[in-house]
Amino acid sequence: MQRREMLGALGATRFVAGGVASPASAAPEMNLPLEFAYEAIVTLGAGTPVGKTPYGVRNRIPITGGTFEGPRIRGTVLAGGMDWQLERPDRMLDIHADYMMQAEDGTLIHVINKGLISHDPARRYVRTVPWFEVPEGPHAWLNQSVFTGTIGAPPEGKGPAVRITVYRIL
Measured between alpha carbons, how far is 39 from 67 in angstroms, rounded to an integer? Predict the structure, then answer.
């Protein structure tokens, strides 16, 4: 089936729990249940200002390591990733982090985490959408769902770091 035909077929139906299709005219699902996937403490290096671009002020922050743990997975965040931040004119910080994690069993997990953070104290907003690429095996479930997350302050004593909490959208 060609991509256009597939997208057309999806437009005519809506998938609900259990994979059963219902007519597109049915009411949209208003509740998106979440399942805790993991929490990561990601350590960071010193930022390097790139400067003002046509889109805002760009900064890059090296990802130097860390750990992650959840009910189904745990391991380390590998050094060598980067968080590309763009401070936009509308006072939003656009983040795009690209890094690798390694599960305890040795599986490498590629993470691309995009998000928005508001600098406006009246409108506190911090949300991310992590995307995973994982080899077939016990952690393939990361390839088969959509995730969302938040970014916050790390626990005391962790130095320059962030706490990333990730949820699977069911």
Answer: 8
pLDDT score of 11 more than 90: no
Secondary structure (3-state) at 69: strand
Q: Considering only CA atoms, which of 29, 30, 31, 85 is closest in space to residue 61?
A: 85
The residues, any chain, with a CB within 8 Å of residue 70's CB and separated by 6 or more, are 36, 37, 38, 39, 166
Q: What b-and-e string marks burial along 44-62, b requiring 16 or more CB atoms within 10 Å of the CB?
A: beeeeeeeeeeebebbebb
Which tokens sit at 45? 């290096």
Residue in the block written with tokens 């690429």? 133
pLDDT digits (tens, 9 = 90+) for 158-168: 789 999 999 99
3-state secondary structure of 30: coil
